[in-house]
Amino acid sequence: MNTPCLQLQNLTKHYRQVVALNDISFAVEPGEIFGYLGPNGAGKTTTLRLMLGLVQPTSGEVHMFGERVAPSSRQSVTIRQRLGFLPGELNLYPEMTGQALLDYFARFRPQRPLVWRPRLLEAFALDAATLQRRVKLLSHGTRQKIGLVIAMQHQPELLFLDEPTLGLDPLMQRAFIEVIKELSQRGATIFFSSHILSEVENLCERVAILRAGELIALETVARLREKMVRRMTLRFAAIPPDLGHLSGVVRSEAQGNELTFFVRGDINLLLKELTDYHLERLVFPEPELEDIFAHYYHHREQPAGPVI
Amino acid sequence: MRTTIIIASNLLARLFKRHGLFLSVIGLLLSGLQILICAIVSSVNLEGAMREISQSLPPFMQALLSEEFALGLTSRGLIVFAWNHPVVHAMLAAAMILLASRAIAGEIEAGTMELVLAQPFSRHTYLTTQITFAILILLALISLMLVSIRIGLSIFNLQRVLSWQTFLPVAVNLLGLEITIYGVTLFLSSLSREGGRVATAALLFVLISFLLQAVARLWPAIQFLLHYTIFEYYSPQQIVVSNGISWKNIVILLTLSLVASGAGWWRFMRRDIP
Predict the structure, then answer these.
(1) How far is the C-alpha of A58 from the C-alpha of A50, rounded, in Å?
(2) A274: distance to nearest CA of chain B, Å?
(3) Chain A nearest CA to B272, separation (Å)
(4) Claim to verify: residue A130 and residue A173 sit in the same structural domain
(5) Which residues of A are less than 8 Å from B272 in CB distance?
(6) Is residue A62 situated within a structural domain?
(7) Do A110 and B3 touch (CB under 8 A)?
(8) The complex's ipTM?
(9) Partner-chain residue, chosen from A54, A72, A93, that has the shortest CB–CB distance to B269
(10) Tens digit of pLDDT per residue, chain A (308 long)?
(11) Is residue A150 part of a domain?
Protein backbone atom coordinates (compact mmCIF):
# COMPACT_ATOMS: atom_id res chain seq x y z
CA MET A 1 0.00 0.00 0.00
CA ASN A 2 1.26 3.49 -0.91
CA THR A 3 2.11 6.02 1.78
CA PRO A 4 -0.51 8.77 1.51
CA CYS A 5 0.79 11.93 -0.05
CA LEU A 6 -1.11 13.93 2.52
CA GLN A 7 -2.56 12.80 5.80
CA LEU A 8 -4.47 14.71 8.43
CA GLN A 9 -4.85 13.11 11.86
CA ASN A 10 -7.42 14.49 14.29
CA LEU A 11 -6.64 18.02 13.24
CA THR A 12 -8.31 20.59 15.46
CA LYS A 13 -8.01 24.34 15.58
CA HIS A 14 -9.59 26.64 18.12
CA TYR A 15 -9.46 30.42 18.02
CA ARG A 16 -10.13 31.15 21.68
CA GLN A 17 -13.72 29.96 22.17
CA VAL A 18 -14.41 29.45 18.46
CA VAL A 19 -13.88 25.97 17.03
CA ALA A 20 -12.62 26.60 13.50
CA LEU A 21 -11.87 22.95 12.78
CA ASN A 22 -12.83 19.93 14.79
CA ASP A 23 -11.04 16.57 14.70
CA ILE A 24 -10.49 16.33 10.96
CA SER A 25 -8.89 13.15 9.63
CA PHE A 26 -8.43 11.98 6.06
CA ALA A 27 -5.71 10.94 3.65
CA VAL A 28 -5.00 11.86 0.04
CA GLU A 29 -3.31 9.28 -2.15
CA PRO A 30 -0.47 10.09 -4.57
CA GLY A 31 -1.73 11.27 -7.96
CA GLU A 32 -5.24 11.94 -6.69
CA ILE A 33 -7.26 15.08 -7.41
CA PHE A 34 -8.97 15.65 -4.12
CA GLY A 35 -11.80 18.12 -3.64
CA TYR A 36 -12.38 19.95 -0.41
CA LEU A 37 -15.84 21.30 -0.45
CA GLY A 38 -17.68 23.59 1.89
CA PRO A 39 -19.49 26.91 2.08
CA ASN A 40 -17.58 30.10 2.90
CA GLY A 41 -16.47 30.05 6.52
CA ALA A 42 -16.62 26.26 6.83
CA GLY A 43 -12.90 26.01 7.66
CA LYS A 44 -11.40 25.15 4.26
CA THR A 45 -8.81 27.94 4.30
CA THR A 46 -7.92 27.18 7.93
CA THR A 47 -7.27 23.55 6.93
CA LEU A 48 -4.98 24.67 4.11
CA ARG A 49 -3.11 27.04 6.41
CA LEU A 50 -2.67 24.26 8.95
CA MET A 51 -1.32 21.94 6.28
CA LEU A 52 1.19 24.56 5.14
CA GLY A 53 2.32 25.33 8.68
CA LEU A 54 1.01 28.90 8.54
CA VAL A 55 -1.31 28.21 11.46
CA GLN A 56 -0.49 26.12 14.52
CA PRO A 57 -2.96 23.33 15.28
CA THR A 58 -4.61 23.16 18.69
CA SER A 59 -4.18 19.40 18.40
CA GLY A 60 -3.60 16.80 15.71
CA GLU A 61 -0.97 16.29 13.05
CA VAL A 62 -0.36 16.78 9.36
CA HIS A 63 1.88 14.42 7.39
CA MET A 64 3.11 15.00 3.85
CA PHE A 65 5.07 12.41 1.87
CA GLY A 66 5.23 10.40 5.08
CA GLU A 67 6.88 13.18 7.10
CA ARG A 68 5.27 15.17 9.87
CA VAL A 69 4.83 18.86 9.08
CA ALA A 70 6.00 21.11 11.89
CA PRO A 71 6.28 24.82 11.13
CA SER A 72 9.83 26.01 10.53
CA SER A 73 11.39 22.58 10.94
CA ARG A 74 14.07 21.61 8.42
CA GLN A 75 11.84 18.79 7.18
CA SER A 76 8.96 21.18 6.55
CA VAL A 77 11.23 23.41 4.49
CA THR A 78 12.33 20.42 2.42
CA ILE A 79 8.72 19.34 1.99
CA ARG A 80 7.72 22.80 0.80
CA GLN A 81 10.21 22.47 -2.07
CA ARG A 82 7.79 19.91 -3.49
CA LEU A 83 4.61 21.92 -2.94
CA GLY A 84 2.70 24.52 -4.87
CA PHE A 85 0.15 26.85 -3.30
CA LEU A 86 -2.45 29.32 -4.43
CA PRO A 87 -4.06 31.20 -1.53
CA GLY A 88 -7.78 31.90 -1.50
CA GLU A 89 -7.30 35.63 -1.15
CA LEU A 90 -4.42 36.15 -3.52
CA ASN A 91 -2.46 39.34 -2.94
CA LEU A 92 0.64 40.09 -4.95
CA TYR A 93 3.15 42.92 -4.66
CA PRO A 94 1.37 45.67 -6.60
CA GLU A 95 4.49 47.53 -7.74
CA MET A 96 6.14 44.45 -9.29
CA THR A 97 5.54 43.32 -12.84
CA GLY A 98 4.04 39.92 -13.54
CA GLN A 99 7.35 38.69 -14.95
CA ALA A 100 9.31 39.92 -11.92
CA LEU A 101 6.85 38.13 -9.63
CA LEU A 102 7.16 34.84 -11.49
CA ASP A 103 10.95 35.10 -11.33
CA TYR A 104 10.92 36.15 -7.67
CA PHE A 105 8.93 33.12 -6.56
CA ALA A 106 10.84 30.79 -8.91
CA ARG A 107 14.14 31.75 -7.23
CA PHE A 108 12.93 30.22 -3.95
CA ARG A 109 13.29 26.81 -5.60
CA PRO A 110 16.63 27.06 -7.39
CA GLN A 111 16.91 23.28 -7.89
CA ARG A 112 13.56 22.92 -9.65
CA PRO A 113 13.67 23.86 -13.33
CA LEU A 114 10.78 25.88 -14.71
CA VAL A 115 10.05 23.49 -17.56
CA TRP A 116 6.33 23.92 -17.11
CA ARG A 117 6.17 27.71 -17.15
CA PRO A 118 5.86 28.15 -20.95
CA ARG A 119 2.99 25.65 -21.08
CA LEU A 120 1.15 27.48 -18.27
CA LEU A 121 1.69 30.91 -19.83
CA GLU A 122 0.29 29.60 -23.09
CA ALA A 123 -2.71 27.91 -21.41
CA PHE A 124 -3.61 31.02 -19.44
CA ALA A 125 -2.95 33.36 -22.38
CA LEU A 126 -0.37 35.39 -20.48
CA ASP A 127 1.74 37.10 -23.13
CA ALA A 128 5.01 38.99 -22.67
CA ALA A 129 3.28 42.39 -22.87
CA THR A 130 0.87 41.51 -20.04
CA LEU A 131 3.71 40.20 -17.91
CA GLN A 132 5.63 43.45 -18.33
CA ARG A 133 2.82 45.43 -16.69
CA ARG A 134 2.77 46.17 -12.99
CA VAL A 135 0.44 43.96 -10.98
CA LYS A 136 -1.58 46.95 -9.74
CA LEU A 137 -2.58 47.67 -13.34
CA LEU A 138 -3.79 44.12 -14.02
CA SER A 139 -7.35 42.84 -13.72
CA HIS A 140 -8.35 40.49 -10.93
CA GLY A 141 -8.55 37.59 -13.39
CA THR A 142 -5.05 38.21 -14.75
CA ARG A 143 -3.64 38.38 -11.22
CA GLN A 144 -5.34 35.07 -10.47
CA LYS A 145 -3.72 33.55 -13.58
CA ILE A 146 -0.31 34.83 -12.43
CA GLY A 147 -1.02 33.27 -9.03
CA LEU A 148 -1.76 29.96 -10.71
CA VAL A 149 1.50 30.09 -12.68
CA ILE A 150 3.42 30.90 -9.46
CA ALA A 151 1.83 27.86 -7.82
CA MET A 152 2.57 25.47 -10.68
CA GLN A 153 5.59 26.73 -12.64
CA HIS A 154 8.00 24.41 -10.79
CA GLN A 155 5.75 21.42 -11.46
CA PRO A 156 4.91 20.66 -7.82
CA GLU A 157 4.34 17.13 -6.59
CA LEU A 158 1.57 18.28 -4.27
CA LEU A 159 -0.50 21.29 -5.22
CA PHE A 160 -2.81 23.19 -2.87
CA LEU A 161 -5.40 25.39 -4.51
CA ASP A 162 -7.81 27.49 -2.48
CA GLU A 163 -10.77 28.61 -4.60
CA PRO A 164 -8.59 28.68 -7.73
CA THR A 165 -11.20 29.70 -10.30
CA LEU A 166 -12.20 32.84 -8.43
CA GLY A 167 -12.19 35.67 -10.97
CA LEU A 168 -11.47 33.46 -14.00
CA ASP A 169 -13.78 33.78 -17.00
CA PRO A 170 -15.42 30.58 -18.35
CA LEU A 171 -12.76 30.18 -21.04
CA MET A 172 -9.97 30.38 -18.49
CA GLN A 173 -11.86 28.05 -16.16
CA ARG A 174 -11.79 25.48 -18.95
CA ALA A 175 -8.09 26.10 -19.52
CA PHE A 176 -7.54 25.68 -15.79
CA ILE A 177 -9.33 22.31 -15.76
CA GLU A 178 -7.17 21.11 -18.68
CA VAL A 179 -4.00 22.22 -16.92
CA ILE A 180 -4.98 20.48 -13.69
CA LYS A 181 -5.77 17.26 -15.54
CA GLU A 182 -2.42 17.47 -17.33
CA LEU A 183 -0.56 18.06 -14.08
CA SER A 184 -2.36 15.10 -12.54
CA GLN A 185 -1.37 12.91 -15.50
CA ARG A 186 2.23 13.87 -14.80
CA GLY A 187 1.82 12.35 -11.34
CA ALA A 188 1.04 15.37 -9.17
CA THR A 189 -1.42 15.20 -6.30
CA ILE A 190 -3.90 18.05 -6.22
CA PHE A 191 -5.78 19.30 -3.21
CA PHE A 192 -8.48 21.57 -4.42
CA SER A 193 -10.74 23.62 -2.16
CA SER A 194 -13.93 25.17 -3.46
CA HIS A 195 -17.46 26.15 -2.54
CA ILE A 196 -18.71 25.36 -6.05
CA LEU A 197 -19.97 21.82 -6.27
CA SER A 198 -19.92 21.48 -10.07
CA GLU A 199 -16.26 22.56 -10.20
CA VAL A 200 -15.22 19.83 -7.79
CA GLU A 201 -17.52 17.33 -9.48
CA ASN A 202 -15.83 17.95 -12.85
CA LEU A 203 -12.29 17.60 -11.60
CA CYS A 204 -12.02 15.45 -8.54
CA GLU A 205 -12.06 11.76 -7.87
CA ARG A 206 -12.84 12.12 -4.20
CA VAL A 207 -14.26 14.86 -2.06
CA ALA A 208 -14.36 15.78 1.57
CA ILE A 209 -17.26 17.95 2.61
CA LEU A 210 -16.82 20.38 5.43
CA ARG A 211 -19.40 22.38 7.28
CA ALA A 212 -18.86 24.63 10.32
CA GLY A 213 -15.47 23.04 10.96
CA GLU A 214 -16.82 19.48 10.89
CA LEU A 215 -16.09 16.91 8.21
CA ILE A 216 -19.52 15.65 7.25
CA ALA A 217 -18.61 13.42 4.32
CA LEU A 218 -15.69 11.77 2.59
CA GLU A 219 -16.82 10.16 -0.65
CA THR A 220 -15.88 9.40 -4.21
CA VAL A 221 -17.51 11.80 -6.66
CA ALA A 222 -19.43 8.90 -8.22
CA ARG A 223 -20.89 7.97 -4.86
CA LEU A 224 -21.68 11.58 -4.11
CA ARG A 225 -23.59 11.81 -7.38
CA GLU A 226 -25.59 8.73 -6.45
CA LYS A 227 -26.49 10.16 -3.10
CA MET A 228 -27.06 13.69 -4.26
CA VAL A 229 -30.64 14.90 -4.21
CA ARG A 230 -31.10 17.42 -7.00
CA ARG A 231 -33.91 19.84 -7.60
CA MET A 232 -35.88 19.82 -10.88
CA THR A 233 -38.65 22.32 -11.61
CA LEU A 234 -41.32 21.58 -14.24
CA ARG A 235 -43.92 24.02 -15.53
CA PHE A 236 -47.15 22.76 -17.04
CA ALA A 237 -49.89 24.56 -18.98
CA ALA A 238 -52.43 23.59 -16.31
CA ILE A 239 -52.43 22.24 -12.76
CA PRO A 240 -49.99 19.31 -12.89
CA PRO A 241 -50.93 15.74 -12.05
CA ASP A 242 -49.32 13.96 -9.11
CA LEU A 243 -46.02 12.65 -10.50
CA GLY A 244 -44.32 11.73 -7.25
CA HIS A 245 -44.19 8.09 -8.34
CA LEU A 246 -41.83 8.69 -11.30
CA SER A 247 -38.37 7.10 -11.32
CA GLY A 248 -35.81 8.67 -9.00
CA VAL A 249 -38.22 11.20 -7.49
CA VAL A 250 -37.70 11.30 -3.75
CA ARG A 251 -40.22 14.01 -3.05
CA SER A 252 -42.37 16.42 -5.07
CA GLU A 253 -43.92 19.77 -4.24
CA ALA A 254 -46.66 21.42 -6.31
CA GLN A 255 -47.26 25.14 -6.48
CA GLY A 256 -49.77 26.41 -9.06
CA ASN A 257 -48.70 25.14 -12.47
CA GLU A 258 -45.23 24.30 -11.21
CA LEU A 259 -43.98 21.06 -9.82
CA THR A 260 -40.66 20.70 -8.03
CA PHE A 261 -39.03 17.28 -7.93
CA PHE A 262 -36.25 16.25 -5.60
CA VAL A 263 -34.42 13.64 -7.65
CA ARG A 264 -31.68 11.18 -6.76
CA GLY A 265 -29.40 9.17 -9.07
CA ASP A 266 -29.65 8.74 -12.85
CA ILE A 267 -32.18 11.11 -14.41
CA ASN A 268 -32.37 9.46 -17.85
CA LEU A 269 -35.27 7.23 -16.98
CA LEU A 270 -37.15 10.13 -15.43
CA LEU A 271 -36.64 12.28 -18.54
CA LYS A 272 -37.95 9.41 -20.69
CA GLU A 273 -41.05 9.14 -18.50
CA LEU A 274 -41.62 12.88 -18.66
CA THR A 275 -41.99 12.76 -22.45
CA ASP A 276 -45.55 11.47 -21.84
CA TYR A 277 -46.48 14.88 -20.44
CA HIS A 278 -46.72 18.26 -22.10
CA LEU A 279 -44.23 20.54 -20.37
CA GLU A 280 -43.87 24.31 -20.84
CA ARG A 281 -40.51 24.48 -19.18
CA LEU A 282 -37.99 22.32 -17.35
CA VAL A 283 -35.33 23.79 -15.10
CA PHE A 284 -32.59 21.54 -13.74
CA PRO A 285 -30.10 23.83 -11.97
CA GLU A 286 -26.71 22.97 -10.61
CA PRO A 287 -27.17 21.33 -7.23
CA GLU A 288 -26.58 23.55 -4.24
CA LEU A 289 -24.20 22.59 -1.48
CA GLU A 290 -27.02 23.11 0.97
CA ASP A 291 -28.96 20.28 -0.69
CA ILE A 292 -26.08 17.93 -0.06
CA PHE A 293 -25.67 19.13 3.50
CA ALA A 294 -29.35 18.55 4.14
CA HIS A 295 -28.93 14.99 2.92
CA TYR A 296 -25.93 14.30 5.13
CA TYR A 297 -27.36 15.93 8.21
CA HIS A 298 -30.48 13.86 7.75
CA HIS A 299 -28.41 10.67 7.59
CA ARG A 300 -26.07 11.57 10.43
CA GLU A 301 -29.01 11.78 12.81
CA GLN A 302 -29.67 8.11 12.11
CA PRO A 303 -27.57 5.32 13.68
CA ALA A 304 -26.24 3.92 10.39
CA GLY A 305 -25.05 7.17 8.83
CA PRO A 306 -22.34 7.43 6.18
CA VAL A 307 -18.80 6.63 7.24
CA ILE A 308 -16.87 9.83 7.75
CA MET B 1 23.34 26.04 2.81
CA ARG B 2 23.76 27.24 -0.77
CA THR B 3 19.99 27.17 -1.24
CA THR B 4 19.48 29.20 1.95
CA ILE B 5 21.94 31.82 0.68
CA ILE B 6 20.14 32.02 -2.68
CA ILE B 7 16.77 32.38 -0.91
CA ALA B 8 18.09 35.02 1.51
CA SER B 9 19.64 36.96 -1.40
CA ASN B 10 16.32 36.84 -3.21
CA LEU B 11 14.50 38.22 -0.16
CA LEU B 12 17.18 40.89 0.35
CA ALA B 13 17.09 41.96 -3.29
CA ARG B 14 13.33 42.40 -3.03
CA LEU B 15 13.71 44.50 0.14
CA PHE B 16 16.29 46.73 -1.56
CA LYS B 17 13.97 47.25 -4.52
CA ARG B 18 10.96 47.90 -2.31
CA HIS B 19 12.54 50.38 0.08
CA GLY B 20 15.45 51.64 -2.01
CA LEU B 21 13.97 54.97 -3.09
CA PHE B 22 12.67 55.99 0.34
CA LEU B 23 15.92 55.04 2.05
CA SER B 24 18.00 56.84 -0.58
CA VAL B 25 16.02 60.03 0.06
CA ILE B 26 16.57 59.65 3.81
CA GLY B 27 20.28 59.10 3.16
CA LEU B 28 20.52 62.21 1.01
CA LEU B 29 18.70 64.35 3.56
CA LEU B 30 20.86 63.11 6.44
CA SER B 31 23.95 63.68 4.38
CA GLY B 32 22.83 67.15 3.31
CA LEU B 33 22.05 68.13 6.88
CA GLN B 34 25.60 67.31 8.01
CA ILE B 35 27.11 69.48 5.29
CA LEU B 36 24.56 72.25 5.89
CA ILE B 37 25.38 72.42 9.58
CA CYS B 38 29.09 72.61 8.79
CA ALA B 39 28.31 75.46 6.39
CA ILE B 40 26.31 77.31 9.07
CA VAL B 41 28.99 76.82 11.70
CA SER B 42 31.65 78.21 9.40
CA SER B 43 29.61 81.26 8.43
CA VAL B 44 28.04 82.65 11.60
CA ASN B 45 29.09 84.19 14.83
CA LEU B 46 28.30 81.09 16.78
CA GLU B 47 28.35 82.24 20.33
CA GLY B 48 25.98 85.14 19.64
CA ALA B 49 23.79 83.10 17.35
CA MET B 50 23.47 80.20 19.79
CA ARG B 51 22.52 82.52 22.61
CA GLU B 52 19.91 84.20 20.45
CA ILE B 53 18.55 80.90 19.21
CA SER B 54 18.36 79.39 22.65
CA GLN B 55 16.54 82.40 24.08
CA SER B 56 13.93 82.23 21.34
CA LEU B 57 13.22 78.54 21.93
CA PRO B 58 10.62 77.11 24.32
CA PRO B 59 12.03 75.75 27.58
CA PHE B 60 11.92 72.08 26.55
CA MET B 61 13.96 72.78 23.43
CA GLN B 62 16.42 74.74 25.56
CA ALA B 63 16.66 71.66 27.74
CA LEU B 64 17.50 69.57 24.68
CA LEU B 65 20.25 72.01 23.83
CA SER B 66 21.57 72.09 27.36
CA GLU B 67 24.31 69.63 26.54
CA GLU B 68 25.42 71.84 23.71
CA PHE B 69 25.74 74.54 26.35
CA ALA B 70 27.96 72.15 28.25
CA LEU B 71 30.30 72.44 25.32
CA GLY B 72 30.30 76.17 25.93
CA LEU B 73 28.24 77.30 22.91
CA THR B 74 31.17 76.57 20.73
CA SER B 75 31.48 75.54 17.13
CA ARG B 76 32.17 72.01 18.38
CA GLY B 77 28.89 72.06 20.24
CA LEU B 78 26.90 73.00 17.18
CA ILE B 79 28.64 70.52 14.90
CA VAL B 80 27.95 67.72 17.36
CA PHE B 81 24.32 68.83 17.53
CA ALA B 82 24.11 67.75 13.88
CA TRP B 83 24.06 64.20 15.27
CA ASN B 84 21.41 64.92 17.87
CA HIS B 85 19.18 67.11 15.78
CA PRO B 86 15.45 66.23 15.97
CA VAL B 87 15.42 65.94 12.17
CA VAL B 88 18.19 63.32 12.29
CA HIS B 89 16.28 61.35 14.91
CA ALA B 90 13.04 61.69 12.98
CA MET B 91 14.56 60.41 9.75
CA LEU B 92 16.46 57.50 11.24
CA ALA B 93 13.51 56.51 13.42
CA ALA B 94 11.21 56.72 10.37
CA ALA B 95 13.50 54.34 8.46
CA MET B 96 13.69 51.85 11.34
CA ILE B 97 9.96 52.01 12.09
CA LEU B 98 9.09 51.55 8.42
CA LEU B 99 11.31 48.49 8.02
CA ALA B 100 10.22 46.79 11.24
CA SER B 101 6.51 47.51 10.88
CA ARG B 102 6.49 46.24 7.30
CA ALA B 103 8.59 43.15 8.12
CA ILE B 104 5.70 41.32 9.79
CA ALA B 105 2.51 43.32 10.34
CA GLY B 106 2.81 45.24 7.05
CA GLU B 107 3.33 42.06 5.05
CA ILE B 108 0.32 40.46 6.75
CA GLU B 109 -1.78 43.58 6.16
CA ALA B 110 -0.83 43.56 2.46
CA GLY B 111 -1.99 39.93 2.30
CA THR B 112 1.31 38.69 0.87
CA MET B 113 2.69 36.94 3.95
CA GLU B 114 0.66 33.78 3.37
CA LEU B 115 2.12 33.21 -0.08
CA VAL B 116 5.64 34.19 1.02
CA LEU B 117 5.75 31.88 4.04
CA ALA B 118 4.40 28.99 1.97
CA GLN B 119 7.70 29.07 0.06
CA PRO B 120 10.49 26.65 0.99
CA PHE B 121 12.25 28.59 3.72
CA SER B 122 11.73 28.84 7.44
CA ARG B 123 10.39 31.75 9.41
CA HIS B 124 13.90 32.00 10.91
CA THR B 125 15.32 32.66 7.44
CA TYR B 126 12.62 35.22 6.74
CA LEU B 127 13.15 37.18 9.95
CA THR B 128 16.94 36.91 9.86
CA THR B 129 16.87 38.43 6.37
CA GLN B 130 14.62 41.27 7.53
CA ILE B 131 16.87 42.07 10.50
CA THR B 132 20.03 41.79 8.38
CA PHE B 133 18.54 44.22 5.89
CA ALA B 134 17.67 46.74 8.63
CA ILE B 135 21.18 46.52 10.09
CA LEU B 136 22.78 46.94 6.64
CA ILE B 137 20.61 49.98 5.97
CA LEU B 138 21.40 51.49 9.34
CA LEU B 139 25.11 50.94 8.82
CA ALA B 140 24.85 52.52 5.38
CA LEU B 141 22.95 55.58 6.65
CA ILE B 142 25.31 56.16 9.57
CA SER B 143 28.35 55.64 7.34
CA LEU B 144 26.88 58.18 4.97
CA MET B 145 26.53 60.62 7.87
CA LEU B 146 30.16 59.98 8.78
CA VAL B 147 31.34 60.53 5.22
CA SER B 148 29.22 63.68 4.95
CA ILE B 149 30.49 65.19 8.19
CA ARG B 150 34.02 64.44 7.04
CA ILE B 151 33.34 66.18 3.73
CA GLY B 152 31.62 69.08 5.51
CA LEU B 153 34.47 69.59 7.97
CA SER B 154 36.94 69.45 5.14
CA ILE B 155 35.09 71.80 2.72
CA PHE B 156 34.44 74.42 5.40
CA ASN B 157 37.83 74.06 6.95
CA LEU B 158 36.54 73.00 10.35
CA GLN B 159 38.95 70.11 10.92
CA ARG B 160 40.85 72.27 13.37
CA VAL B 161 37.63 72.57 15.42
CA LEU B 162 36.65 68.91 15.39
CA SER B 163 38.08 65.81 13.80
CA TRP B 164 35.68 63.49 11.95
CA GLN B 165 37.06 60.56 13.97
CA THR B 166 35.36 62.08 17.01
CA PHE B 167 32.12 60.93 15.44
CA LEU B 168 33.11 57.25 15.33
CA PRO B 169 32.05 56.53 18.93
CA VAL B 170 28.99 58.76 18.39
CA ALA B 171 28.12 56.57 15.40
CA VAL B 172 28.32 53.44 17.57
CA ASN B 173 26.03 55.07 20.14
CA LEU B 174 23.59 56.14 17.41
CA LEU B 175 23.61 52.62 15.98
CA GLY B 176 22.62 51.30 19.42
CA LEU B 177 19.77 53.80 19.72
CA GLU B 178 18.32 53.07 16.28
CA ILE B 179 18.64 49.30 16.69
CA THR B 180 16.62 49.68 19.89
CA ILE B 181 13.89 51.55 18.01
CA TYR B 182 13.93 48.80 15.38
CA GLY B 183 13.74 46.05 18.02
CA VAL B 184 10.81 47.64 19.85
CA THR B 185 8.94 48.16 16.57
CA LEU B 186 9.66 44.58 15.49
CA PHE B 187 8.15 43.34 18.74
CA LEU B 188 5.01 45.43 18.14
CA SER B 189 4.96 44.19 14.54
CA SER B 190 5.00 40.56 15.69
CA LEU B 191 1.83 41.19 17.71
CA SER B 192 -0.21 42.94 15.05
CA ARG B 193 -1.79 42.48 11.63
CA GLU B 194 -1.73 46.16 10.73
CA GLY B 195 1.50 47.87 9.73
CA GLY B 196 0.00 51.34 10.09
CA ARG B 197 -1.05 50.73 13.67
CA VAL B 198 2.40 49.37 14.52
CA ALA B 199 4.11 52.38 12.94
CA THR B 200 1.87 54.77 14.89
CA ALA B 201 2.52 52.98 18.19
CA ALA B 202 6.28 52.93 17.55
CA LEU B 203 6.27 56.58 16.56
CA LEU B 204 4.46 57.45 19.79
CA PHE B 205 7.01 55.43 21.76
CA VAL B 206 9.88 57.39 20.18
CA LEU B 207 8.14 60.75 20.53
CA ILE B 208 7.14 60.22 24.15
CA SER B 209 10.63 59.02 24.97
CA PHE B 210 12.14 62.09 23.28
CA LEU B 211 9.81 64.58 24.95
CA LEU B 212 9.94 62.86 28.32
CA GLN B 213 13.68 63.26 28.31
CA ALA B 214 13.33 67.00 27.67
CA VAL B 215 10.63 67.49 30.33
CA ALA B 216 12.45 65.38 32.92
CA ARG B 217 15.54 67.49 32.47
CA LEU B 218 13.52 70.63 33.18
CA TRP B 219 11.51 69.25 36.06
CA PRO B 220 13.57 67.83 38.90
CA ALA B 221 10.58 66.03 40.42
CA ILE B 222 10.43 63.63 37.49
CA GLN B 223 14.12 63.36 36.78
CA PHE B 224 14.03 59.69 37.80
CA LEU B 225 12.08 59.09 34.55
CA LEU B 226 15.15 59.98 32.53
CA HIS B 227 16.36 56.40 32.98
CA TYR B 228 13.21 55.15 31.25
CA THR B 229 13.76 57.11 28.06
CA ILE B 230 15.91 55.56 25.35
CA PHE B 231 17.33 58.95 24.36
CA GLU B 232 18.97 59.26 27.76
CA TYR B 233 21.38 56.56 26.61
CA TYR B 234 22.42 58.45 23.51
CA SER B 235 24.64 61.39 24.26
CA PRO B 236 26.94 62.61 21.49
CA GLN B 237 27.88 65.74 23.41
CA GLN B 238 29.09 63.73 26.38
CA ILE B 239 31.16 61.55 24.08
CA VAL B 240 32.82 64.64 22.60
CA VAL B 241 33.33 66.30 25.99
CA SER B 242 34.71 63.20 27.67
CA ASN B 243 36.41 62.06 24.46
CA GLY B 244 35.16 58.53 24.92
CA ILE B 245 32.16 56.32 24.56
CA SER B 246 29.90 55.28 27.43
CA TRP B 247 29.88 51.50 27.18
CA LYS B 248 27.21 51.42 29.84
CA ASN B 249 24.87 53.26 27.47
CA ILE B 250 25.73 50.91 24.62
CA VAL B 251 25.11 47.84 26.78
CA ILE B 252 21.75 49.21 27.97
CA LEU B 253 20.62 50.00 24.42
CA LEU B 254 21.78 46.66 23.02
CA THR B 255 20.14 44.76 25.88
CA LEU B 256 16.87 46.59 25.27
CA SER B 257 17.12 45.88 21.58
CA LEU B 258 17.92 42.20 22.10
CA VAL B 259 15.08 41.72 24.58
CA ALA B 260 12.54 43.47 22.33
CA SER B 261 13.58 41.79 19.10
CA GLY B 262 13.98 38.44 20.91
CA ALA B 263 10.39 38.71 22.16
CA GLY B 264 9.29 39.66 18.64
CA TRP B 265 11.18 36.69 17.21
CA TRP B 266 9.62 34.29 19.73
CA ARG B 267 6.12 35.62 18.98
CA PHE B 268 6.59 35.50 15.19
CA MET B 269 7.76 31.88 15.29
CA ARG B 270 4.56 30.87 17.07
CA ARG B 271 1.92 33.15 15.65
CA ASP B 272 -0.74 32.19 13.17
CA ILE B 273 -0.58 33.73 9.70
CA PRO B 274 -2.49 35.87 9.07
Answers:
(1) 10
(2) 52
(3) 4
(4) yes
(5) 49, 54-56
(6) yes
(7) yes
(8) 0.85
(9) A72
(10) 578 899 999 999 999 889 999 999 999 999 999 999 888 888 999 999 999 999 999 999 999 999 888 766 777 888 999 999 999 989 999 999 999 999 999 999 988 888 899 999 999 999 999 999 999 999 999 999 999 999 999 999 999 999 999 889 999 999 999 999 999 999 999 999 988 877 888 888 899 999 889 998 898 888 877 777 888 899 988 888 888 888 888 888 888 889 998 888 788 888 898 888 888 899 988 776 666 666 665 555 444 333 33
(11) yes
Q: Which of B111, B118, B123 sits opposite A91 (nearest CB)?
A: B111
User: A57 and A15 in one domain?
Assistant: yes
Contact A90 B115 (CB under 8 A): yes
Per CB-CB distance under 8 Å, the chain B contacts of A73 are 122
Shortest distance, CA A301 to any CA of chain B (angstroms): 35
Domain that holds residue A280: 229-286
- Which A positions 161-200 lie with beta carbon below 8 A of chain B? none
A305: in domain: no
The domain locations on chain B are 2-270
Per CB-CB distance under 8 Å, the chain B contacts of A92 are 112, 115
Looking at the fold, whether A52 and A82 belong to one and the same domain comes out as yes
